[in-house]
TrEMBL record:
GO biological process, one term: zinc ion transport
GO cellular component: a single term: membrane
The protein's name: Cation diffusion facilitator family transporter
Phylogenetic placement of the source organism: Bacteria, Bacillati, Actinomycetota, Actinomycetes, Pseudonocardiales
Membrane topology classification: Multi-pass membrane protein
Record GO terms (molecular function): monoatomic cation transmembrane transporter activity
C-alpha cells in the first residue's frame, strides 16, 4: 500500500465523526442522557484520532536525516498507538465513569425523541464511514480473514479505522437501546447501563489496538509468505544456501532485509558482487516494500566442517 493508503477511509471517518460529535453533544444538552454524553466524547475522541492518523502519514514522509538514517516511517505506528491510548482513556474510561454515576444516581431524560433521532442519523453516517473503510481494506487484505488482516497488517491506519467505526456503530446501537428502554420503562438506570456497555466495548477495542500497534512500533518482521518469497529470490545456482536472514518493517512501506548468504567457493569477488546485485533487483521487483537490503557473502562453515 502506498504511503497514503487508507487516506480516503480516514477522511470519511473524520468528516462523519466531527458532524456526529456536534449532533450528539447537542442531543445531550437537550436530554441529559449519559449515553449521549458518552457517545459525544467517543465521537470527539474519534475525530481527534483521525487527525492524528493523518498527521502520522504526513510526518512519516519526512526524508531521512543523520539522526534518523532510516527515516520516519514508524511515525505512523507511533500515532496509531497514541490513537489506541486515546480511545481507551477518552472513550472507555469516561463512559465507564459516566455510566456508573448514572446507575447510582439515575436522572430522568428530557426530550428523549431528540436523542433517538440523532442516534438514528448517526448510525447512517457511521455506516457510510464503515463501508468506506471496508472497501479500502478489501483492496489490500487479499485472502486474509478480517481478524487476520487486523493482526497481520503492517499498515496501521486501516485496522484502526475499521475497529473504531465498528465500535462506533455498536456503541450507537447500545446508546439507542439504553435511551429506548429508559423511555419505555421510565427507569433512567437503563441509560446508565447502556453507557457502561459502551465503555466495556471501547475498552476491548482499545486493548486490541494497543497490543497490535505496540507490536508494530517495537518492530515486526515480514510475514512467513513474504519471507519465503525473499529467500526464494535470494537463491540461485551460485548460492549454496541462505545461512540466516533478518527482516524488520521500518514503516508500512519500508522493509529492512539483512541476510548472510553462502556462495560457491569458486566465485571471484566480482562474480559475488554481481550475484548480490542481481539478488537485490529480484527482491525489489518481487517485494516492493524491500527498500533497504544488506547482503553479506560468507562460507557455509557448518557444511565445510562436516565435508
Amino acid at each position: 500500500m502506498s504511503a497514503g493508503g487508507g487516506t480516503k477511509a480516514i477522511l470519511a471517518a473524520l468528516v462523519a465523526n466531527a458532524g456526529i460529535a456536534v449532533a450528539k453533544f447537542g442531543g445531550f444538552l437537550f436530554t441529559g442522557s449519559s449515553s449521549m454524553l458518552a457517545e459525544s466524547v467517543h465521537s470527539l475522541a474519534d475525530t481527534s484520532n483521525q487527525g492524528l492518523l493523518l498527521l502520522g502519514q504526513r510526518t512519516s514522509r519526512r526524508k531521512a536525516t543523520e539522526e534518523h538514517p532510516f527515516g520516519y516511517g514508524r511515525d505512523r505506528y507511533f500515532y496509531s498507538f497514541v490513537v489506541a491510548l486515546m480511545l481507551f482513556t477518552l472513550g472507555s474510561v469516561f463512559a465507564l465513569y459516566e455510566g456508573s454515576h448514572k446507575i447510582e444516581h439515575p436522572e430522568p431524560l428530557e426530550s428523549a425523541w431528540v436523542a433517538v433521532l440523532i442516534l438514528v442519523i448517526a448510525i447512517g453516517l457511521e455506516t457510510y464511514s464503515f463501508r468506506t473503510a471496508i472497501k479500502e481494506s478489501r483492496a489490500v487484505k487479499g485472502e486474509l480473514s478480517w481478524w487476520q488482516f487486523i493482526r497481520q497488517s503492517k499498515t496501521p491506519e486501516l485496522p484502526v479505522v475499521l475497529l473504531e467505526d465498528l465500535g462506533a456503530l455498536v456503541g450507537l446501537v447500545l446508546a439507542l437501546g439504553g435511551v429506548g428502554l429508559t423511555v419505555l420503562t421510565g427507569n433512567a438506570i437503563f441509560d446508565g447501563i447502556g453507557t457502561v456497555c459502551i465503555g466495556v466495548l471501547l475498552g476491548v477495542i482499545a486493548v486490541v489496538l494497543i497490543v497490535e500497534t505496540k507490536s508494530l512500533l517495537i518492530g515486526e518482521g515480514a510475514n512467513r509468505d513474504v519471507l519465503d518469497e525473499i529467500v526464494g529470490q535470494l537463491e540461485s545456482e551460485r548460492v549454496e544456501r541462505v545461512i540466516h536472514i533478518r527482516t524488520q518493517y521500518l514503516g508500512p512501506d519500508e522493509l529492512l532485509i539483512a541476510a548472510k548468504i553462502s556462495f560457491t567457493e569458486s566465485l571471484s569477488v566480482a562474480e559475488v558482487a554481481a550475484e548480490i546485485d542481481g539478488a537485490e533487483k529480484r527482491i525489489r521487483a518481487s517485494v516492493p516494500a524491500a527498500r533497504l537490503i544488506y547482503l553479506e557473502p560468507d562460507l557455509d562453515r557448518g557444511r565445510t566442517a562436516t565435508a
